[in-house]
Specification:
Number of helices: 5
Radius of gyration: 19 Å
Helix content: 55-70%
Oligomer: single chain
Largest sheet: none
Distance between the termini: 24 Å
Amino acid sequence: MQEFAHILENHVLLVATVACLIAQASKLIIDLAQHGKVNVRVLVTTGGMPSAHSALVTALATGIGQTVGWDSIEFALATIFAVIVMYDAAGVRQAAGKQARILNQIIDELFQEHHNFNEDRLKELLGHTPFQVIVGSALGIAVSCLAGPAY
């Protein structure tokens, strides 16, 4: 159990987690501004502005660069990991969301008359736009830079 306590002493991990939580909380504020009502569901869903995944991985990579060094193998690994996560968020997951939207539309149009069809809808908001990923990345870097003295 004492080993688990050491995780809480990992400032890079804590700052990256804080960056992710800030991004998720900002989704609530942005959704409130857009729709005029509180939708707590946005706190636990994927997609939306800004990308919490991007904030997490860029804060992690930035924190590693600040603590271990920008020329370290650890920073290189974290940076490659961040690029893959952000590419997936803006590429593969966004494409899957677009496909889900089209499939839902096909189901709506083809099976309006037949009520015995299973009408479970596919989740459409899976990924991020490139802008959402960039904003999430900027947030992650900013949070990590602001927390620099904590390292």
